[in-house]
Amino acid sequence: MAAPESGDGNNGAARMVTLISSDNTRFEVEAAAASLSQTLQLTILDGGGGGGDGIPLPNVDSATLSKVLEYCIKHAPAAANGGAPNATAVDRAELERFDNEFVNIDQSVLYSLIMAAHNLEIEGLQSLVAKKVADMIKGKSPMEIRRTLGFPDPTPEEQAEMNAHMLEYGWAYE
Amino acid sequence: MASSRCCRCRCEQTSTGWATLPRDILVIVFLKLGPREIMRGAEFACKHWRRAALYEPELWRNVEMPKVGKWCRGWRAMVRAAVERGAGQCVSFSGPCDNLSLLHLVECAPSLRSLDLFDFVASKHVLTEVIMRFDLLEDLEISPEYDCSYQSTKLFLPVCQACPQLKRLVLADQELNYDDTVQIHDNERKLKVPVMPRLRYLELSYCEIIIPTVLVDILDICPRLNFLHVSSYLSFPHEIRHGLDEKIRIKCPEMTDLTLPGDGLTDDSDEGAEDYNRHCSVKDYCDTAVYLSKNCGWIDENEINSYRRALRSYFSIREQNFSHQLQLKFEKHLHYGLMYQ
What Pfam families does UniProt report for this protein, alphabetically (chain A) (predicted)? Predict the structure, then answer.
C-alpha cells in the first residue's frame, strides 16, 4: 500500500482517520488534524487509522477526545504552514481568541485535557492548558491553590508538615 | 459498563488528580509559574508538588525574581534556595543582591550567562571578583539601590575591566567623570576602559556624564557597538547633543540605535525630576560648555563667559533654594572646568 502523504490526498478530498475513545465512541477526523499528536502522527504516516479499522485510544474518554479534536481541527491549518510564518495578524488573533475561550472551563476538564495532551503528545495543547493552570494558581496561598484545584482536605499530619516547611522558609510569609 | 468505568475514573481524577499530576506535566505548569510563584505558594500545596520544586533543576535554570525586593521577608534565603535548587544549571539570574548573596551565586551558578542585579548594594570589589569568575557571562545589568554609596555609582570602569567578554551591558545611576579618564595630551582625555570586543548593546540610564565627549570615546573601546542608549537627569543642551550625535554616527556607521540625554524628552510627568532639571539646567549648560570648549572647541570663550554670568545671577537669586549638596557638586565641576583654562 503506498503510504499517502499526511494531510491533503491527491484526489482533492482530505484523508480521514478514525479514532476510538476508551468508551468506544468513534471519531472521524482529518489526518492533518490528528497528526498534531506526535503519538498518532507515526501511525498515520504508516497508513493506519483509515478505512474500517480505527486507532484505539484506551486512555482518553469520548468527552475529552472531542474537546482535544476541537483544538486539533482549529490548529491544524496553522500547523500545516510550519508554525504559520505567513499567517496574517487576523488569523493569529482569531486563534488566540479561540484558545482563551477554549480553556475557559472547569478544572476537572482541564485535568483530563492536560493528561490527554500529554499522552497524545500534543505540545501546543499541553502548553496552553499548563498556562491556564498556572494563571489559576498565580498569587494564591497554598490553601487557596488546594481549594482551586479541588485537592482532598489535607490530613492533620500533612497539614502539620506543610506548616513546618512554611515556617522554616521565612519567604513564604510576606 | 464502559461509561460507568469512565465515570468512576473521572471522579477519582477530580478529587486527587492535580495533587498527583505526573512529574513532567507538573514541571511544565511550574515553568509557566516561574520561581517566585513556586516558592510563594505552589511548592507548599502538597508533598508531591514540593518534591518537584526541590528536585527538578530544570525549574531553576532561569531564576527571575523581579518582584522580590529587599523589603520581602527572607529574600536572601529565597534567592539562595532558588539558585541552589538549580544544581549548577542556572543560566540566568535576576534579583536583588548584596555581598553575601553574590558570593553564594558564583559558588552555585558558575555557568550563568545573564545576570540582572537590582537593589545592588554590594562592594565594588566583591562585584568584580564575582563577575570575573563567570566565564560564560555575556549579559549584565546592574541598578544600585536607591540612595546607594558613591562607589556603587562608579561601576562602569571596574565592570568593563572584569568582564571584557560582555555582549550586553546595562548600568543605571552611574557617574562618568574625570576619574574614569586618563590625560593623553594637554587638552585631551581618554577613557581608561579596556577594549570590549563583543559589546553590542550599552545602556547607561540615569547616569551623570560629566564629560559628554566620553560617549564618542566609548566607540573606540566598543568597536562592535550598535545600540547606545544614554539617559540622564540632566539633559544635554540641543547643540551639544546634535554635535555628539553627528560625531558618533560618523565614527560608527553601524550604530542602529542611539539615544542621548535629552533626546525625545516628552514625559516630564515626574514632577521631582522636572524640578531637578530646572534647578540644574543652567549649571549643566555651563559645565558642558566649559568642558566642550576645552576638549573640542565647539563653543567660544565669549559664550562661556555669558553662561558664567547667567549662572552666577541664577545662584544669587536662588541660593536659598539650592541644596547644599548640589552647590558642592557644582563647585567641583567648575573647578575641573577651570583647571583646563
Answer: Skp1, Skp1_POZ
**Mutation for A interface: B29, B70, B101, most A CBs within 10 A:** B29
Residue pLDDT, tens place only, B43-86: 888 888 999 999 999 999 999 987 776 666 778 888 899 999 99
- Angle of CA points A132, A130, A168, to nearest 5°: 95
Instruction: Quote the crossing angle between the two packed helices B214-221 and B238-251, to the nearest 10°.
Output: 20
Find out whether B220 and B248 touch, Cβ atoms under 8 Å. no
CA–CA dist B248, A57 (Å, integer):
65
Greatest mean pLDDT range, B139-143, B228-232, B255-259: B139-143
Helix H or strand E segment including B298 = none
Q: In one letter, which amino acid is B48?
A: H
Nearest CA in chain A to B26: A130
What domains appear along chain A, each with residue ranges and CATH number?
16-138 (3.30.710.10), 140-174 (no CATH)
Chain B positions in Cβ-Cβ contact with residue A127 (cut-off 8 Å):
28, 32
Residue B181 β-bridge partners: B191
Closest residue of chain B to A108, computed from CA coordinates: B14
Count: domains in chain B = 1
B270-273 — which CB contacts under 8 Å span 24+ positions?
A: B273/B233
Contacts of B77 in chain A (CB under 8 A): 169-171
- Kindly determine whether residue B41 and residue A145, on different chains, have CB atoms separated by under 8 Å: yes
* pLDDT band per the 50, 70, 90 thresholds, residue B183: confident
Distance CA B93, CA B60 (A): 9
Residue B195 banded pLDDT, cuts 50, 70, 90: confident
Q: What is the span of the domain harbouring residue B44?
A: 19-60
Q: Within a domain: residue B167? A: no
Interface membership of A112 toward B (CB under 8 Å): yes
Buried b (16+ CB within 10 A) or exposed e, B10-32: beebbeebbbebeeebbbbbbbb
CB atoms within 10 A of CB B143: 19
CB B101 within 8 A of CB B79: yes
Where is average pLDDT lowest: B101-115, B126-140, B183-197, B218-232? Answer: B183-197
Q: Which three cell numbers stand for residue B251?
A: 565614527
Instruction: Give pLDDT < 50 ranges for chain A.
Output: 1-11, 174
Q: What angle do CA B55, B57, B58 make, to 5 degrees?
A: 125
Q: What is the pLDDT of residues B270-320, one digit of tens each?
A: 444 444 444 455 555 555 555 555 554 444 556 556 555 555 554 444 444
